[in-house]
Amino acid sequence: MNLIGEHITYKPDDQFHLNDVSFNFKKGNLYTILGRTLSGKTTFLKTIAGLLNPDSGNLSFEKKDFSKIPVWERNVAMVYQQFINYPHLNVYENIIFPLKQRKLSKDKIKTDVEEALKTVGLIGFENRKIQELSGGQQQRVALARSLAKKAKILLLDEPLVNLDYKLREQLREEFKKIFSEGMSQETILIYSTTDPQEVMELNGEVIVLDEGKVLQKGPAKEIFENPLNLKVAEISNDPPMNILKGLKNSDNLNFENISIKSPKHFKNLENQNYNFGIRASEIKLDDNGEEFEIELAEISGSETLLHLKKGNSKLIALIEEVMNFKIHQKVKVIFNSNKFYAFNQSGELVSSPYGINNG
Amino acid sequence: MKTIKTCVTALISALLVFSNVAYADKWSDQFPHIKATGDIPGECSYESMSKKDYSGKTLKINTHAVPVMGEPTALHAEQFAKLTGAKVDVTHTPAGDLYAKAMVPFQAGQAPYDIVFGFSNFINDWRRYLAPVPKKYTDMKQMKDVTPSHIGIASWDGVMYQFPVDGDRHYLKYRKDVIDNPEYQKKYKADTGKELKVPTTWKEYGEMAAYFNDWDWDGDGEKEYGSAEVMKKDDLMYAAFYSRSAAYSKNPKTPGGFFFDLETMTPLINNPGFVEALTDWVAATKYVPPGGINFGLGDEIGSFGGGQTLFSFSWDDAFVAAMQPDSPINNKVGAAQLPGSTKVWNRNTNSWDEGFNQAPFFVWGWAVGVAKKSKEQEMAFDYLCFFANEANHQADIGIGRFGVNPFRDADFQADVWTQIGWDKDIAQSYVDTLAEMEKSKNRVFPLRVPGTFEFNAALATAAAKALAGQLSPQAALDEAAKQWNDILNRVGKDNVRKAYSVGVAMEDNKL
Amino acid sequence: MEKLYTFLKYTFITLWTVFIVAPFLWAVSTSFKDFQSVNSKVTYIPWLDFEPTLEGWRVLVKSPARGGVDIVEPYFNSIFVTCTASLVSIVLGTLAAYALSRFTFKAGFIRNNDITFFFISQRIMPPIVLSIPFFIFLSTIGLLDSLLGLVVVYIVLLMPIAVWIMVDFFNRVPKELDETALIDGCNPYQAFYKVVLPNSIPGLIVAGMFCIIFGWIDFFFAFILTFTEVQLLPVKVVALNSSITPWWSLSASALISVAPLIIVAFVVERYLSKGNLSGALK
Amino acid sequence: MNFKHKFVFLFPGLFVLIGILIFPIIFTIRLSLSGWNSYTPEMNFIGITNYIRLFTDDPRFWESFFRLSFLSVSTVILQYIIGFALALMVWKEIKFKRFFRVIFLIPMMTTPVIMTVIWRTFFHESLGPVNDLLGHIGIGPILWLSDPVIAKFTVIIVEVWQWTPFMFLLLLAGLLSLPKEPFLAAAIDGASPFRKFVYVTFPLMAPISIGAIIIRLIEASKIMDTVFVLTSGGPGTATETSSFYIYIKGLREFQMGYAATLSFTYLVIMIISLTIIAKVLTKLMIKE
Q1: What CA–CA distance (Å, rounded) separates D234 from D151?
Q2: pTM (2 decimals)?
Q3: In C, which residues are within 8 Å of D169 by CB distance?
């Protein structure tokens, strides 16, 4: 009773949008698709919805060949990043639209809609016009419409990306609640995003997508702890993981003009050139550290992002407080060497602070 | 009251000189249009038509725009329908499109119209689609009265294709109140040393027009100008050019063609006669009203008829419009033959023949035919015959906007015109002018050959370029002649010669 | 600076308004003139400059036998032909435009853009190119000189406009809207008429307006393809152009023929003012 | 999206159009290879004789074509500039906004063949109001219709009057549908109105501008009624345009075969040049 995709490839105009993607989604689970813009996330969701027909590969749901079933009979629901509602209908009409389409009884429609409205917190807004709502409210309507439908597959395509920061935070919290409490165990929930933090918070099964290819599959924690390669490390971290080319010898890790003591978990690594990775949050200000020059300092929320430079090495450090820096100011930082990753020359993970366990 | 009116009408009518006894009758009660004469007996009179029964049948007519020709067509259609029970549908089309409007369906093998109005020079292109006028009609009394030149224009090689309903020619119109004004005569003599009189040559015409140009000579506070002419490059302007050329190029000593030399089919339009005429015409652009170089016939009529110019020459319309009771120059205009010249080109000797020469141009006029493919030919001819019956004709020619002009011997009588309010001497000069043209032995007839439109359009384009100063007269006419040769080659010299010989025969007084 | 801009703005707008209105004012004045008041000197104001007459207007309803043109029937013919052809063009054009905006077509080297250009290119042809073939075409199918025949021809003239406007419009309607409808259980036809169409009213209004305008002002085809049974307004009015150009009745007819379209202008403006002519979905 | 249903949407319109047009186009091509005229109305086959005539012996057509290019390009440019200016002016709040908007729309709703008669009387050199009014302030008389150079401008004036509303409406509709964000951003940056126009409004309006310009070029190229009624192509041949010339050859002189040749050649040239113009405009106006 699963949604199974096998070797799905979609390649219009000789460009891969999906490249040999396979998956097996189980009911009652949440799957997040993580990838940068244009990585194929939307294509992936649209293929499941039936809006796109893959050029090759199989897609089946509940043991039926899904590709034979047109969109309008698939019983899926989808929420887009651009708050898509029916502008000519009011909130209530928007939500009952799919239900009417399925010719459900009036009573059933009524209870379903009320339930959905309650879930998204739009009770009292039934007669509002869509244009009169804020972006967040519009997205709630879209969500309510999807929920009321009680579809077996619910697709959410970066639903929060077009909202401002605060609303995003707030809605994300609500989503988490809705997903954990409001969803039927019959539903497969697929959520796409570019935001690694969202992936972590939603804490579902993750598929990392890049250029139409699946880079890594697994639980959120696993992706975070053991990104399979540089690409994943980059995609699954915001700010992206710092990558420093360097040489490991028996004791030290040597970068261009920095030398750091090699961490314990590197002890089995051969001494050679690696791409060392370290998260921005593992770089701290410390007067005993290496001196870097500040190229740019960004304050976001309660954090400060420092773009640092030394010689040809560039780094981003995340300071968990708001501080004022001047450009070209010199600061000293230290690296939490216990949190170093090592990727080999072809970019594959060879050592991780959380212990590597892939074959 | 009504009886008094009828009596008065009858009385007036009785005084008229028509050969028929005119009286108000039951027909004029029913059809006020002929109240002046009542019905006049004849094969196509109201009386005769009322005996025909065309009920259930439809007659379709394409005619000119309202009112010129369009209004009488519609009016007589209405009368005809009342008399015979037929349904008559009339469509009105601007002059420039009459040809195409009939030609497109003709060539597609269709006959959407039973009757098509057009110009008499369409005859060569149209005749293969038109039914000849049956003998029954050509033998009628009303046809016997038509002047020979108009029978000639309506016929091709002796077969009549167009039913005569109108007569047309170009002649000179002038402001009598200026030309006959002793003060202006004195002033003109003093200033130029010449007599102010009705111009007999184009040179005199030009001198007077230039003299009376761009100043207020009638004291109305507005400037007046020398001459109003059709100079806009449309379907009529080349007629104005031929009118101006006739005197210089139609040499009675050189028969055998005005437009072409019939023997060699060489275009003659770039010979010195035509060049002289075009040179005159280019000079004329100096004494026309502002924008006069863009005048069409309508502008010419409006300009002269509105009292803006001293001279005008072309169809009757401007004269008749000027003589309407509400016209500002009512009874202030005179008619005369087109001016002549003091020399005429002799293409045989390749030199100018000195001496006065004048040649009237029997420009085309309204013509009408019945489609060969029409299923209602009898009804169609009856309609045309009715259109031109004597009662209708006499009523029509008195109404300026109808555009129906004299073409019967009976029309050339001053009384016809004095009864509608013209001064006697004006009426006399008018009918004399027209009658003299009919008598002339040095006439020019319009070009009626395959490709007439191409020839005329090529000439018009060249003349227009000369008027606009784009080319010199000689260069313009050389260009036109070259194009005429091209057209000749496309159409085939022999085809053109064969057709042209018909017109030349009329010009050479052989028909 | 701001003040100067405002001043220039209002000056420009005023001048343009004068430029637009001037010929109409002239037409209004001229429509009350007669031969006399037109041809002797330039006159402007009735009673002051010239003695007004209603003749120019009367001509339009008089029978030709009385020197008029009787435009009543042609007027309704024009309305019928214009509206019918516009409606059909809009329906067919909108469907085609939707297809061209939403789906991908491939046939040899032909792509969506080429098909769209094919539609639009129909308007490149000068009417004269088409007049004779259309004449023969209509006479073959027996529709010459009929309202239906004109409707057929006008569809060719108008559909390209409808396609052009609507492709442009649909391209600005997010395609996620119809996708959502499909996901919500509509088949493509239902998605089109339940969701896309109700949200395309502004586009349809503009397209409809252009169709009506281009249909209403056509002279050439109406002229070539009709004889006696059917006459359209412009053809009938042009038949006033006799040897004398009757300035007065042509002015009256110009005013009368533009009148119904002014209503269209108001409708369009209303949608513009509501700000949703093309922005409904932004 | 790709469904088999797509054909159901496209085909009715496409096939109706093709169905009605296929005959005329084939007929025109065949006609262009014939010598059909008033005296030999038949589809004889004369090969490419007509085309040879057109390319070797008909300077008047080519002159008319270049004149047409001048007239249509200059009218469209003027219409675009004025239409855009007007649209910008009544875009935002302004007094009597609705009144102006309606007024600005009206000219395009007049029938050219009738309205141009009004223009002819309007510009009548001795009986029209323009020269009369100018005369009062000591100017003129200007030969609006009978001077070879001025007449071209008169044609342009009338065309601009008639069709600027078309541009105006499309551009105004475009302006009204612009997203607000870029303007907010520009306002925050404190951009001057001029910079706002150059860097925000104009780029955003580029796609709709290109569409409007191309369509107007197509329509302006057919300019005929105006020329026909105003000047009949005169004085001389100073205002003759291609379609008017084709009309003369076809329906006046009835050289149907040759007119078809002109038409077909014209069509091919227009399609090629419009395609090029569209490409060039896209390159010039959309920088990506």
Answers
A1: 8
A2: 0.85
A3: 206, 268
